[in-house]
Amino acid sequence: MSPRLKAPRGTFDVLPEAAAGYARLEQAARGLFERAGYGLIETPVFEETELFERGVGDSTDIVRKEMFTFEDQGGRSLTLRPEGTAPICRAYVEHGMHKLAQPVKLWYLGPFFRHERPQAGRYREFHQVGAEAIGTDSPLADAETIMLLSGLLTELEVPGVTLRLGSLGSLGARREYLEELRAYLREHESELSRDVAERIDANPLRAFDADDEGTRAVMASAPQLLDRLEGEDAEHFAAVRELLDGAGIGYELDGSLVRGLDYYTRTIFEFHCDRLGAQSQVGGGGRYDGLVEELGGPPTAAVGWAAGIERILLAIDAPPPEPATDVFIALADGAEPARAMALLNELRSAGRSAELDLGGRGLKGQLKQADRLGARHTLIVEPGGTAQLRDMESGEQREIEPGRVLEEL
Ligand code: HAM
Q1: Contact indicator for 311, 158 with CB cutoff of 8 Å
Q2: pTM flag (> 0.85)
Q3: Closest alpha carbon to 46 in 64, 14, 68
Q4: Atom 9 (ligand 1) nearest CA
Q5: Distance (Å, rounded) from C-alpha 400 to C-alpha 212?
Q6: Cα(260) to centroid of ligand 1, in Å?
Q7: Which residues contact 358 (CB under 8 A, 6 or more apart)?
Q8: What separation in Å is there between the alpha carbon of 299 and the centre of ligand 1?
Q9: How far is the CA of 332 from the centre of ligand 1 (A)?
């Protein structure tokens, strides 16, 4: 025998039982976004590498270590998308969407790729559902996007969810704080992990996210940006909080919240689920008021989020699909297969779910198969043009006129 091949590390096949969970989630998201006036956008699965270097940031883990980057035949550097916000902002600029009525409200769903160490809830190919409201700096947009994700998790009955809320201030206002943080980190440099120490200049905020004990102990008394918010940043954050309070959405303030992407400004947030262990973040997002401009567009404020579909499905232990088959068509000995095919076609055209045995089973085997599929009725086609309709629950069976199958059902 030839050696067997496996799906690459950190990837998985979605088999039909699991696909039902994905379909249910997609349907819930579609309904939610349609009611909220968000339009679906699809962008390519790969982009120019520079988009993520500029958009997500050179000093982030994602860009430094986690991208699947390759050269195409023309020598261009391309990258499988690790996230969706930079591509959507690229599309916003490329298609001149700033000329439309603002904000432009978009949602998306699809595969994303990060070369991370695989574990439960963390994969190299995973799926996100996300929303972006581009072209508004109103705190209403922050609150409404948070409300959408909260609504999705509620509708899907994700248990044990908490919302962590923070603010990074605007880019200008943050500068002063970052200097203060750098000075603090330098004072404690010997206690920090190498990774954090190396990035004091490039990305000091990342120290809040480190999981080694030394860094964590230092960060417990580090200065926090949330305590230093001033002026319009403070007003914006207060307004977002007031709107969330008004909408009855509970949250915890988290001054040590930082995100793994560089584009955030002002509001940031994460939804965590206590059933998920180490990878508890089901979704996260925030404001990114500088990203569109960074990608060559006009100054444009925006806010959005993405949620991990696998993590949501893990958290809800996605229930098995409902039995779908209305009618199983069985062939008695000597019956004509062509008649069964015609009935199959008629039933499906009328919107009924119908299946026919494709496995060459005898009548008894076919009835068993109908049972396995949870079929509500079995139509037994007999030689000479008669048919029996059997109610699978009661076992009751009666002869019907073949031309009247739909009426009889
Ligand atoms: P993110 O926090 O990097 O944000 O990812 C969003 C969600 O994707 C996470 O909360 C997590 O549930 C899921 N996720 C991330 N990495 C993996 C993985 N390796 N395996 C399984 N699930 C994963 C973003 O991507 C931003 N683009 C969100 C955003 C939109 N911000 C503004 N707009």
Answers
A1: no
A2: yes
A3: 68
A4: 283
A5: 73
A6: 9
A7: none
A8: 25
A9: 54
